[in-house]
Each structure stands twice: as structure tokens, then as C-alpha cells.
Amino acid sequence: MIIIFKTDLTEEKLHRIAEKIESDGFYTRPISQYGKLLLSVDGPNTEKLSKEVKKWQDVEEVIDGHFPYYLASRKCHKSNSVIRIGKGDNQVTFGDREISIIAGPCAIETEETALSIAEKVKDAGAKIFRGMLFKPRSSPYSFQGIGKDGLEILDEIKKKTGLLIVTEVREACEADLVADHVDIFQIGTRNMSNFQLLKYIGKMNKPVILKRGMGSNIIELLCAAEYILSYGNTNVILCERGIRTFEQFTRFGLDIAAIPSVKELSHLPIIFDPSHASGKSSLVSSLTLAGISAGADGVILEVHDKPENAFSDGTESITPLQLKNLIKKVKKIAEIIDRRI
Predict the structure, then answer these.
(1) Is the Cβ–Cβ distance between 211 and 228 less than 8 Å?
(2) 3-class DSSP state for residue 303?
(3) I want to staple 184 with a disulfide (CB 3.0 to 4.6 A). Which of 165, 166, 231, 291 is the partner?
(4) What pLDDT, in 10s, does the model give residues 139-174?
């Protein structure tokens, strides 16, 4: 249960209210977000407590437990959340008219190849570089990423290209390690339900791309975002990256309907990942145009100048030239739907 208080409630009075509720055997947690003062209440028989609380003078509204993603919902925040990352000419936004392009290899391999790809994706029109150092893989024998040895490479890319950088983190210690080297965290599909990690990222004031779990529905994605929001971090960007279906021709099924659905349910921006969804470079362009047309705030693409030599996911990587041609098409779509790159 969530209790929403009137805006003039003092913290001292909130503390007294929380003590009163806890004395009746409940657990409480105060949350201040989007200009609202909330109290999360857990425990048995909250239905009875709810009826009592609704009568209190300082209470604006009570949200029952069956609505699990209040902070991420349009009910809490009606207008689109706009997340700004970077400064000046290097600033990108998610959630307004801008469509952001994120591009780079599946994983950082060597300094030479990473720099080469970074310069080419920037030339093509991307503003954010995929700089993955840690790779959660299905098989323990697959390439796991170069880890902390790649931090200097990320620094060099930022220095020479000015690109913003996103990297995936799998646990709290990795988030601490890369925090000063990157602009955006990514939480991958396998960690969408890693609630301890979500809480930890929620306490860090850094933008995060939260990918939908491969077997998760839209509500579960919003609930995962709620963990981050409720612990203080409002810079959450959702990502549709394909879900498991019975289809075997593609790697996953890109759920295009999830994009407008999330827009209807939530104020948070949403991007998508056609590379991981399809698993085939030949499908990336068509899926990208479809996702942008559906209203996505950006796209994250795997790009490699020599996909046949990539350490991982070469079959779904497009070349820098293909990226450049694709962005030209995206610009035309953007004009039609009154958006821009």
C-alpha cells in the first residue's frame, strides 16, 4: 500500500505518522519523488488500515497494493519524463522530440578496434557509444568481456570522440568501478529482476537503461523500474529488446507493441534494441524503422567494422556504412512524426 500525502505535510509529522503505523505491526518506508511525499506500507491486513488512513486529514490518496508501479505510472506523473545526459553539444535527451542513436560493438575487444568503431559511429550520426566491458553470457565458455582492463579504453574514446558512453553492470561492485568513466549504466535482460542491483542503482544518481527481461511482461518491466525510482534515481530509460516466443527464425521477438503500450502506461522514455531481438543483421534496418515509427525515444544498435571477426554477436552487427545509411532513413521517419535526431 502507498499513502500519498498532501504537499504541505512536514517531515516531522510524516515521521510521527510512520511511527504510529509501525506500532501497529507494519513496515514503512518514506519516499519523496516527483514533488510527492509517499509512505510505502507493508504488512498483514492493509485493507483495514487503508480504510482508516483514507480518513486522515493529511492524506491525499491511498494506492492499494495491487497497483505495483505507481511512481513509474502516468497516474503519478502525467507528462513525459525528459532525461538529459551530457552537456552542451554533447547533450542528448530521452523523452522529448529527440530520437537518440546508441551504437557500438557488442563488447569492447581492443583499444584499436574500439576507437576505430567509435569514430565511425560518430561520423554516421550516433551520439552515444556502446562500451560494454562485462558480458553476461549463457555459456561460461563464451567471451565474457575484458572487464576493468577496458576502463582506460573508454576514457580514451570519450577524450578523442566526445561520445557519451553506456556500459552494462551486473552487480554493485561493477557499478562503483565504472561510475566515473561512463555516462549511462545498462542493466541487461538477465538482471532486470536482480532487485538488489536495482535498489543499489536507485541510490546512484546516474542515468540507467533498463532492458526488459527476455521472459518478462510489460508490467514486470515497470515494476523493475519502480525499484530504481523508489530508491531515488529518476533517470530511468526503459528498453524493449525482444522476448522469447515460439519463433525460431529470429533470436527473440521484438515487441513493437510494447513501445506505444509503455508510452500509454508510463511517463518514462523507452528505446529498443533490434540487434539483440533479431539476431540477424539483415533485419536490423527494417526493425529500426518500425520501432521509430511506433514512437520510441531512441535505438541501441550493435555496430562493428568487421562483423565476421567480432568476438561476440557478429551475426547481428551492422557495419558503420550500414549505420550511416540507416540513420538517413530514420531522419526521414523522424520528420514525418514531428521528431528529430
Answers:
(1) no
(2) strand
(3) 166
(4) 887 777 889 999 999 999 999 999 999 999 999 999
